[in-house]
């Protein structure tokens, strides 16, 4: 890909800033990441500080397509290599045994490491420029802990105005809107002998696709599965309460809330809603891939319209909807009971 001179220069400057221990926000095909040199413990600690994230939550290491992942992990079992061959570069994170010389700060003290090779051209250019492509950039999503992940550069600025102004975050690279729109699928491949492959976070790459490559079942997480903050019950949440509502309840719910003077925002599949009763509304796509692309930007927009509640039409329960259904369930987790309380009041 040919970049404009401006972004090419910004990438060079950002790579240098990373080498010097600074934080840099950058686009990936899933969501924007807040990156630091994965081998610089101080720099990684600054990610946690900026995000307000507990330090025992591991972050994902991002590597260039040419990178030698054996620098990072002690073992690449054949099934893990098969997933790499099938899905990298792309929105898939593998959990593998961490190489002994890699600081455990990146994996929150666990003996494993989350690693992925992103497909976004700006992310790849940054990774190739950083330490001549031999480094790794530790990067969680570029949002405060628990918030909705950013899918545009402007979302990152919205999350971190002070950190950008103070240059704690040295650069925010703009790569346009993230294509996928939800975070990478995470598969634990670190305990194959005892547990087989385990899905830690559903995403754009579906269980069905993983199973087609692996030829075995991908299991649900067990009690001993590695911790993942993206799997906390409450996560990915706007500040406005979110409630999931079945389609046959939606009109009645809107009418009741409206009658009680509540300001309601809605995300629904159907276009013909009583829009004058609504503060704002977004039409959802009935394709899960297109839905994921817009989900976080829509949630952020609706978070800004001063609504009392965001009602989201309930999703289909089929496997291809697993990724977005997971994010919406967590976004709504903290607001359980809010809708009932509003209707009862
Ligand atoms: O798409 C993505 O994965 C984005 C972009 C920026 O690459 N990153 C992202 O990072 O979503 P974050 O930190 O918001 O979520 C990473 C998830 C967390 O739930 C974390 O706990 C899990 O990956 N994770 C990372 N390393 C792990 C490890 N060693 N064991 C278990 N979970 C791990
Ligand atoms: Mg996150």
Description:
It is an enzyme of class 2 (transferase). Keywords: ATP-binding, Cytoplasm, Nucleotide-binding, Nucleotidyltransferase, Transferase, tRNA processing. This is Threonylcarbamoyl-AMP synthase. It catalyses: L-threonine + hydrogencarbonate + ATP = L-threonylcarbamoyladenylate + diphosphate + H2O. It is a single chain. The chain folds into two domains: 5-214, DHBP synthase (Alpha-Beta Complex), CATH 3.90.870; 242-343, Rossmann fold. It is built from twelve helices and 13 strands. It has helices at 5-19, 41-51, 78-87, 121-129, 153-159, 161-165, 192-195, 207-214, 247-259, 288-303, 322-333, 338-344, and strands spanning 23-26, 33-37, 60-62, 92-97, 112-116, 137-138, 169-172, 185-188, 198-201, 242-245, 264-268, 280-283, 309-313. The strands form two sheets. It has a nine-stranded mixed β-sheet with strand order 7-1-2-6-3-5-4-8-9, sandwiched between helices. Strands 10-13-11-12 form a four-stranded parallel β-sheet, sandwiched between helices. A hairpin with a 6-residue loop joins β1 and β2. α1 (5-19) packs across α4. The longest helix is centred in the C-terminal third of the chain and has 16 residues, at 288-303. The protein is globular. The protein starts with a helix and ends with a helix. It binds threonylcarbamoyladenylate and magnesium ion.
